[in-house]
Amino acid sequence: MNQILKLGQVVKTETTKKDARVDSFLGGGGQGEVYRATFDGAPVALKWYFPQTGSRDQRGALELVVKKGAPDSRFLWPIELATARGVPAFGYIMPLRPANYKSIVDLMKRRAEPTFRALATAGFQLADSFLQLHAKGLCYRDISFGNVFFDPKSGDVLIADNDNVGVEGATRAGVLGTPRFMAPEVVRGDAMPSTQTDLFSLAVLLFYMLMVHHPLEGHKELDIKCLDLPAMNKLYGTEPVFIFDPQDASNRPEPGYHDNAIAFWPIYPQFIRDLFTKAFTDGIRDPQHGRVRESEWRAAMIRLRDSILYCGNCGAENFYDADTLKASGGQPGVCWSCGKSLALPFRLQVNRNTIMLNYDTQLYPHHVDDNRLYDFSAPLAEITRHPTNPNVWGLKNLSSGKWVTTTAEGVVHDVEPGRSVSLAPGTRINFGKAEGEVRL
Amino acid sequence: MRDSTHAPVWQVVGCSVKGASHIRNGLPNQDAMRWLPDGRSARRSSFAVADGYGSARCCMRPRRGALAVLAATDALTEFADGLRDLPSLSAIKRAAEERLPQEIERRWNAAVDADLADHPLTEAELGRLEERDGARSRERVLTTPRLTDGATLLSALLTDAFLVFLQLGDGDILVVDDDGAVSRPVPGDSRLFGNETTSLAGSDAWRDFRVGFTALAGPPPALVLLSTDGYANSFRDDAGFLQVGADLLSLIRGDGLAVVAAALPTWLAEASEAGSGDDITLVLASRL
Predict the structure, then answer these.
(1) Which uninterrupted H or E stretch holds A128?
(2) What confidence score (pLDDT) does residue B59 get?
(3) CA A131 to CA A139: how far, in whole Å?
(4) Going by fewer Cβ within 10 Å, which terminus of chain B is more open, N or C?
(5) CB of B122 less than 8 A from some CB of A
(6) Structurally, how many domains does chain B consist of?
(7) What distance lies between CA B205 and its chain's CA centroid?
């Protein structure tokens, strides 16, 4: 196929005036083509615009994006613009996406089967990164599953296509994408993309990741043909109805067509369902005040991670749901996968956090200190098993400080770094800034 | 969009031949092909080939391939008709990836359901199925009659601004540049191995579609070929098969498209006889 750049071709970056050599063609899109290139001895991605899309406006937007710098390392952010003699338009270099990162499309198509933990981690990282982006006065404008990638094993996220990022409040035209991820007011043409509309798109993306389905595609969607724009505008713009809207059952998911939504929705804890319900009811009715903030999603995804427990029969991940537990008089329910009764593991109540103490649980700074940022690089504690008695589990102190524990009987112990405290109901652990209690 | 005076004009021709082994065994040609508009050159063209395959579950209904190409070409044409309202090539690409596979599957399912309503499974068919694959296969087909037959499907939409390719299952889509360079515009699928293939059968087939999108920034391709797997399987190796693209372009330039189209039945029959023995269908779009 005819490509804009030839293999081996050299392009020159505009700021550092260095060469980047084209190694291979990676793919084409609507705006341009992406190549793998070598820059400064390291592999990078090189995007080159088509003549018709490499406009002065696009160049200006890109220069601003480069100047602003990446909000965090999860953004595959433009590093430098590039030009080449005799080649129309321009391009830019950016970090190369490692092969282990999969598209959300792969998740949708079941080519990637991440764990709930990985999904919750990915959801947390996305919300966190968009918070950083918005804090810089920038909006993404085009959030969709085409430009988010994640590692199905770890849940680590990378965000691509950052050349369409814009300054909040700027009127640069260019409504992008299909209506499916746009806020209804953008679909209707009532508003330009902004941080506020990003919040709606983020909620759609998170719903998609967790439910493998679109939150507005229920019964009403079945009548839409391939590209019936008026009907799509109605579904996503003028008459959007959440498929699980508690007040409006007109757009419920249909068995046989929307099975993912039907299957996944009841698996998640009530607080997640409540947040999505808010995002797609209040968030549609009142774009200014009704939307779920990035920080709320971030906290919810962390809570979701902490809620995971494993079925003792089949090993499937399930969720601890305090609301359901209360409603059922303390009965933990059955595993969604095998249908056998669940047995709750020990759990740690610390500040407002409830953390399931599974065999692989680790505690991080934010768990024991509300003022600490989310940082998963160094755990403060981890679950361990007694070396000779496999029925005894403990929490090992991985921090540099001493803990003080008090058993249910009132016996006080110091737990030095590297030592463990046995898990028993009623044991209180003072971590320094906060005290937690082990429960069953 | 391009300047209309330089927009490419496409002429589509094709041929489907019954496989040598199918002739020997008295089986019908299970392949199908279709293109729109039919019989004249145009600035926009949609076309498809399908192989209505016979799997272990099948009751051998030869119309399945025809239903598949009908679903694909109609969906692609409707997609192209609706593009006036989409703002950019990025949006078109995304819409193609997100909507077309589901729409084609939806049309296919509706057509298969209608066909099954008109021609319900007979006791003889179910008996043959049970005899060959056991009682569980019979039960499965009774629960989900759509499982009776499937089809692999390859389709393309060529316009003056972009090309869209969709592939489900085996078969080949080749693009030939003016200089004879041949490439595959759709990514490979590691699940296609030996006789195993994804197909239009059962539920959620849309997940298995592979979609290629090419914005036409430089010269458009000179030739686009779609062929069912019987063609490539008639060659000793992939390099030999890819050479067909360059050879056909050379013949079209030398002798004209009409001459090549007239010769296709003989060439494809010879290829099946000497090669795969399978049905072979080839559709090619030549830029005029």
Answers:
(1) helix A116-135
(2) 58
(3) 10
(4) C
(5) no
(6) 1
(7) 15
- Interchain pair A30, B215: CB under 8 A: yes
Q: Supply B187's token pair.
A: 């990514």
Q: Which residues pair with B46 in a beta bridge?
A: B36, B157
Q: Which chain B positions have a beta carbon within 8 Å of A51's beta carbon?
A: 217
Does ipTM top 0.90?
no
From residue A27, alpha-carbon distances to A34, A35, A141 in Å are: 5, 7, 22
CB A129 within 8 A of CB A75: yes
Length of chain B in terms of residues written: 288
Interface of A with B in 15-54 (CB under 8 A): 28-33, 50-53
Residue A356 to residue A439: CA distance in whole angstroms: 10
**pTM of the predicted protein model:** 0.84
B82 touching A, CB under 8 A?
A: yes
Which of residues 131 through 170 in chain B touch A, CB cutoff 8 A?
A: 162
Give residue A136's pLDDT: 92
Q: Do A176 and B91 touch (CB under 8 A)?
A: yes
Task: List pLDDT tens digits, range B38-94.
Answer: 878 889 999 999 998 654 445 556 678 899 999 999 999 989 987 776 667 888 888
| Angstrom distance (rounded) from CA B58 to CA B116 | 13
The angle at the Cα of A181, spanning A180 to A183, to the nearest 5 degrees, equals: 105
Q: pLDDT per residue over B187-241, tens digit each?
A: 877 666 666 677 777 667 888 899 999 988 878 999 999 999 989 988 888 899 9
**How far apart (Å, rounded) are the C-alpha atoms in residues A376 and B67?**
53
- Secondary element (H or E) of residue B100: helix B89-118
Residue A370 gets which letter from DSSP?
T
Q: Give Cβ neighbours of residue B84 (< 8 Å, ≥ 6 apart).
A: none
Residues B120-130 have pLDDT tens digits of 888 888 888 78
Which residues of B fall within a CB distance of 8 Å from A146?
Answer: 94, 97
Using CB atoms within 10 A of its CB, is residue A276 exposed (0-12), middle (13-18) or buried (19+)?
A: buried
Residue among A178, A226, A256 minimizing CB distance to B94: A178
Cβ within 8 Å of residue B232, ≥6 positions away: B171, B172, B238, B241
- A30 closest CB neighbour out of B83, B90, B203: B90
Measured between CA atoms, how close is B91 to chain A, in angstroms?
4
- pLDDT the model gives residue A285: 95
Q: Which domains does chain A have, with CATH numbers?
A: 10-94 (3.30.200.20), 102-299 (1.10.510.10), 345-440 (2.60.200.20)
Cα–Cα dist A39/A120, whole Å: 35
State yes or no: pLDDT of A170 exceeds 80: no
CATH number at residue B85: 3.60.40.10
Q: In what order do the strands lie in the sheet with A381-385?
A: A362-363, A381-385, A393-397, A420-422
